Amino acid sequence: MTQRGDAINTSRESRALSAASMPSTPSTLSTLSTLSTLAGYALDIVLPPQCPSCNCVVESAGMLCGPCWRQIDFLGAPMCGACGLPFSFDPGLVKDVLCGACARHRPPYERARAVMAYGDFSRKLILAFKHGDRTDTAPALSRWLAASGRDLIADAEVIAPVQDLLVRRKRTPPQGRLSRSARRRNVRGAFKVHAARREGLAGRRVLLIDDVLTTGATVQACAEVLLRAGAKAVDVLTLARVVRAEQE
Ligand SMILES: [Zn+2]
Ligand SMILES: [Zn+2]
Question: What percent of the chain clears pLDDT 90, i.e. is strictly above it?
């Protein structure tokens, strides 16, 4: 423990020292960012910014064109206070209304929120971003995440993508056709906390970031693992979520 503390202090000191010995660092950094802004403008002039989805010309980089924008089913209130499932009716001023599934069995996470409904269009957008062919979608996607997750982000003490906090212990077969209880069994014990992240979780409110919430079984398993590791509460923010009419 003491050794660990020492190691951290030493690295902090050495960082402070290296910063002190290079007084030009801040100005170098600002020059660099000015240069990259300039390079960005230059590229915009040579190559006009394109819609990251359909490649038509748009006003500024990282923006979707109107027709693509209109294909996105953005999610918002009214929705289930727990899982974020959008409601087709407005429960009015009643706060924290739950969908049927969450009312019967409250998920281990506190709140799950998503930017958009999962469908053909959002799937293509997210896959292209994940596979790195369209990193120009990053500014739009991160802006949307910040807007949809405003409350969750404000309350969070630890914010991390799932793969930064948890490791898979076993391969799980696809969840697609399984029943709700089979899906839960399927992912039970599938994750554990990264040894290096365990210490930072105790007593903290954690916000997990993931790309898609499908059945919810996976994030539920992740939330259970984090709570067992000492997290105070877990919220979940995803780019998309599957929206199905309630079947049960
Ligand atoms: Zn477009
Ligand atoms: Zn719900």
Answer: 43
pLDDT of the residue at 4: 38
DSSP SS3 for 78: coil
Looking at the DSSP bridge assignments, the partners of residue 209 are 161, 237
Distance 68 CA to ligand 2 centre (A): 29
Nearest to 207 by CA among 131, 148, 167: 148
Domain positions in the chain: 2-46, 66-241
Distance of alpha carbon 128 from alpha carbon 170, whole angstroms? 27
Which residues have CB less than 5 Å away from ligand 2 (the ion)? 80, 82-83, 85, 99, 102
Q: Is the peptide bond before 26 cis (omega within 30 degrees of 0)?
A: no
Contact 62, 140 (CB under 8 A): yes
The mean pLDDT of 192-220, rounded to a whole number, is: 91
